[in-house]
Recover the amino acids of this structure.
């Protein structure tokens, strides 16, 4: 049975796996801080400790609002989400470590509570469909209003400038980039016998090759996004074509390139956490109970 404790545990583990994956290009990992001057691995661990208690609250919020309409359920979830963001900022001294991850995993935990309260099956497909239903029209509602705000967030500025919907669009679309590309890339790598961290890196590169990451755009413009997508595609292609391709070395070289240009694919890092969370649900669910997913040591 999937419950608040299991869901919270899996969400926290997904965040730990993401930040512990090393090396990563442009992102904080156990070896360096990538393109970030204001955060490191230790700060991410503090952030994870601060936000993880909220995953149970998101689940419970989704459960008690299960009979409300999706917009009213989202309204309730957002209150928890904002409280969670405030806890994150308190723990990090105002640094934005997991804003996108709070949004995405908060919605998924809320959706799990909502589905369970309605006695619906909880799996990857139903979770993503429920998030999409909860976030129906969110992009237009949120970002359509943005014109009238004077203090715009990165995502709002990018939507008004380029029409790209960022984290909101991913949620409203039921995490299609994760389900269509990143999760199959991950399970495919595991099936080929690759270790979990190798499969995670392939999944991250797959996300980077598709994702319209507003973080990248806010730091390096559309040309920076194109560069990220092309470099990720290049590595994935070489990995497929060259048997003894040195993925670690190529990732370290890409990290140096991103770091020198101030590029951080933070949005894709968040979607990697989403992918891992959904995979753990898939494993837990296929065992017919809330068993903890098979786990590799985090680092
Ligand atoms: C709904 C919001 C979360 C939207 O916030 P915002 O208006 O800012 O919209 P976005 O910029 O589109 O997204 C916010 C964060 O989401 C991540 N992200 C970006 N693109 C994508 C994407 N395509 N798919 C998924 N996720 C995406 C990204 O977060 C990550 O990067 C941040 C770290 O990088 P950094 O460059 O350091 O970030 P900054 O500090 O902003 O820049 P610097 O100053 O350092 O240069 C980190 O956040 C990662 O998580 C985007 O930043 C929000 O407005 C909202 O409504 N929140 C309320 C709570 C809520 O609704 N909860 C959900 C209900 S349960
Ligand atoms: N490991 C990471 N480094 C930088 N930004 C991130 N956002 C989410 N995970 C991140």
């Amino acid at each position: 049975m999937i419950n608040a404790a299991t869901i919270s545990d899996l969400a926290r583990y997904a965040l730990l796996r993401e930040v512990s994956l090393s090396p990563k290009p442009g992102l904080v990992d156990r070896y360096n801080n990538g393109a970030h001057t204001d955060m490191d691995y230790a700060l991410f661990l503090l952030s994870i400790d601060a936000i993880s208690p909220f995953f149970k609250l998101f689940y419970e919020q989704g459960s008690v609002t299960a009979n409300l309409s999706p917009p009213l359920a989202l309204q309730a979830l957002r209150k928890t989400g904002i409280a969670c963001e405030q806890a994150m900022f308190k723990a990090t001294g105002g640094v934005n470590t997991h804003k996108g991850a709070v949004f995405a995993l908060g919605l998924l935990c809320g959706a799990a509570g909502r589905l369970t309260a309605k006695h619906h099956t909880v799996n990857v497909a139903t979770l993503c469909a429920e998030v999409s239903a909860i976030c129906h029209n969110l992009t237009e509602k949120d970002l359509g209003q943005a014109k009238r705000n004077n203090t715009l967030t990165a995502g709002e500025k990018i939507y008004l400038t380029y029409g790209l919907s960022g984290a909101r669009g991913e949620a409203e679309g039921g995490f299609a980039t994760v389900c269509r590309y990143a999760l199959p890339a991950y399970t495919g790598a595991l099936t080929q016998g690759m270790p979990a961290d190798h499969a995670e890196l392939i999944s991250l590169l797959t996300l980077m090759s598709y994702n319209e990451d507003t973080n990248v755009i806010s730091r390096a413009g559309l040309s920076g996004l194109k560069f990220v997508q092309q470099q990720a595609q290049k590595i994935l292609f070489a990995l497929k074509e060259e048997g003894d391709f040195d993925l670690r070395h190529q990732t370290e070289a890409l990290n140096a390139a991103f770091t020198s240009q101030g590029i951080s694919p933070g949005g894709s890092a968040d979607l990697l956490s989403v992918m891992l969370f959904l995979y753990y649900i898939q494993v837990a669910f296929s065992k017919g109970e809330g068993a903890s997913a098979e786990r590799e040591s985090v680092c």
Remarks:
- The pocket of LTSJ6FE6 (ligand 1) is lined by residues 36, 38, 58, 77-78, 81-82, 85, 96-103, 106-107, 110, 153-156, 166-168, 170, 211-215, 219, 264, 266-267, 270-271 (CB under 6 Å).
- The two ends are 28 Å apart (CA to CA).
